[in-house]
Known about the structure:
By secondary structure, this protein is α+β, with helices and mostly antiparallel strands. The protein has a single domain, classed as Nuclear Transport Factor 2, Chain: A. The protein has helices at 18-33, 37-42, 62-70, and strands spanning 44-52, 55-59, 74-84, 87-96, 108-116, 119-126. Strands 2-1-6-5-4-3 form a six-stranded mixed sheet. Strand 5 (108-116) and strand 6 (119-126) form a beta hairpin. The longest helix is centred in the first third of the chain and has 16 residues, at 18-33. Mean pLDDT is 87; it is low at 1-15.
Amino acid sequence: MVAVLALSLPAVAAADNAPQMRAIVHTWSARLNANDNDGLARLYAVPALVIQAPYAFRLRTRAEIAKWYAGLPCSGHVVSITVRGRYATAVFKLGNRGSSPCDAPGTLAAARFEIVGGKIRSWEQVVVPAKKAPAPAPTVA
């Protein structure tokens, strides 16, 4: 007789659908732009993983999350969001945030959010995805 090991995966809440995930990313952006670090922290499950290469931080409390965001100098206005599974990758146009000047205003940046149960589990700054070239126009003979 063979024993079968059943793995228990965390239940994915109904809120983890593409429209809800996009809404969470838009809320994240609005709170970042408003310099609402405590509000940002409430969007996260704890502990949370925050990665801005070459550093990765496991933030164990919402106070730690709020403190981390207090150090970010740039706002991020949503340009696009792509959802695949439990990940939402967003492209942002950077701007000044609060009284801190952004080091690269007007440029694009991207972040990948892992969202489970309606909360952000991890945030990672990633390379801005390349735009896909449009399909070539058909040739007429």
